[in-house]
């Protein structure tokens, strides 16, 4: 009973050195009692000693704990400012706030800016804990690009963020724009002049001039004429021009990308040019300086005739297949005519190898009237000792009966294939092993 009462007391009250002594004394008392109770006492003893160890160790750990110093800590109200839309060359500024939420002085220094048009005012000295400082950025938008994005790089003694980047973004309301903002030319035929145009307009100025149009450098001739009242109204502009461009016949086949440069000259004498009485607008126009703008042009020059098909490679080479057995194997391609006269007749062909021949047939169903024809390449495999690939491609020249399309020259890569019956496959299943040369 002594042992059980002691154990019960320990369960009901916090463990202490007194009750451990009682329990140990009870253990000696029950040495002559049944074996079953001895095991019960030992189980209680092991349990309470295990539970007691953490309760004694915890205060020691807590007593040895010391708080770590924060040091300087930089917290910015924002690192990005979007000023929206602003006129060109209009001075603007914005103030960024930085607060020291640490417990040591914070230093903030300017390292660099992305361009000279961003001017900053920095804190003169360290920022004490709990205080804030102002970082002011000033700028004005350029007139040669509508997208504005500049950065200020700062260095702090905050180990968490030693380098901080402040960014100013926005859109400059361009005084002169293109309509459309780029030209996409996709129906240009080789050897045929191509005409296009774009409007150069201003929603700000009543008058401006376009000079030094660099069109001839890219193979264009140009003509500039003022927009009439109806055209200005449709464009929502105060003044503008239509720029006519004509591409010459010497442009090679393929894609192209270029920009035509021109100089915009605002009116020097606004009052005389516009006749307005708004002094603020007149002064802004009078102070504006000439600047350059660029008209982007993308396009593709296509030949009057082209070959289309899955066996046409990126470089224009045609791949034809042949079997190592008697007879010819045919590769079918499609020929597209881009010319007012869609009909095309094959007069003859010249092949650099006797095993390669060609023939041309209309598609039928009226598709030949749209300039579509079938081109068949017949290859006799037994006339080739090996595949003809790459530098050993076969030259094939086709001659036509057409007023403007006289010939088409192709390079043909011949690929020989061995057709065998595989004993491991399904009965009669054909497997092909291609051989490159």
Automatic annotation (TrEMBL):
PANTHER family: LIPOPROTEIN-RELATED, SIGNAL PEPTIDE PROTEIN
Protein name as catalogued: DUF1573 domain-containing protein
Superkingdom of source: Bacteria
Signal peptide from the UniProt entry: none
Annotated organism of origin: Pseudobythopirellula maris
Gene3D superfamilies in the cross-refs: Immunoglobulins
Lineage of the organism: Bacteria, Pseudomonadati, Planctomycetota, Planctomycetia, Pirellulales
Region (Disordered) residue spans: 263-284
């Amino acid at each position: 009973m002594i042992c059980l009462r002691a154990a019960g007391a320990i369960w009901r009250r916090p463990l202490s050195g007194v009750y451990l002594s009682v329990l140990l004394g009870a253990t000696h008392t029950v040495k002559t009692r049944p074996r079953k109770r001895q095991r019960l006492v030992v189980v209680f003893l092991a349990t309470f000693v295990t539970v007691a160890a953490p309760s004694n160790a915890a205060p020691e750990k807590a007593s040895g704990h010391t708080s770590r110093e924060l040091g300087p800590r930089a917290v910015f109200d924002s690192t990005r400012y979007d000023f929206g839309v602003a006129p060109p060359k209009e001075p603007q500024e914005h103030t960024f706030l930085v607060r020291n939420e640490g417990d040591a002085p914070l230093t903030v220094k300017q390292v660099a800016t992305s361009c000279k048009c961003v001017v900053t005012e920095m804190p003169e000295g360290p920022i004490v804990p709990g205080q804030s400082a102002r970082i002011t950025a000033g700028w004005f938008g350029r007139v040669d690009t509508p997208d504005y994005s500049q950065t200020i790089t700062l260095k702090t003694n905050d180990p968490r963020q030693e380098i901080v980047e402040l960014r100013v973004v926005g859109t400059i309301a361009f005084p002169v724009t293109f309509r459309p903002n780029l030209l996409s030319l996709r129906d240009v035929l080789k050897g045929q002049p191509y005409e296009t145009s774009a409007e150069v307009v201003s929603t700000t100025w009543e008058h401006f001039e376009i000079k030094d149009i660099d069109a001839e450098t890219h193979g264009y001739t140009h003509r500039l004429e003022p927009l009439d009242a109806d055209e200005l109204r449709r464009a929502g502009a105060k003044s503008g021009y239509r720029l006519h461009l004509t591409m010459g016949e010497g442009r090679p086949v393929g894609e192209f990308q270029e920009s035509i440069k021109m100089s915009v000259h605002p009116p020097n004498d606004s009052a005389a040019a516009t006749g307005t009485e708004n002094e603020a607008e007149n002064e802004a126009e009078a102070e504006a300086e000439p600047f350059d703008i660029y008209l982007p042009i993308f396009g593709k020059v296509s030949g009057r005739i082209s070959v289309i098909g899955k066996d046409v490679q990126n470089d224009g080479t045609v791949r034809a297949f042949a079997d190592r057995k008697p007879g010819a194997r045919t590769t079918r391609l499609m020929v597209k005519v881009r010319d007012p006269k869609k009909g095309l007749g094959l007069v003859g062909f010249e092949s650099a190898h006797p095993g390669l021949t060609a023939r041309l047939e209309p598609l039928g169903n009226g598709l030949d009237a749209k300039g579509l024809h079938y081109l068949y390449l017949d290859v006799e495999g037994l006339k080739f000792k090996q595949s003809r690939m790459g530098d050993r491609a076969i030259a094939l020249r086709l001659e036509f009966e057409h007023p403007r399309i006289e010939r088409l020259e192709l390079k043909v890569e011949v690929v020989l294939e061995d057709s065998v019956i595989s004993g491991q496959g399904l009965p009669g299943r054909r497997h092909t092993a291609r051989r490159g040369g």
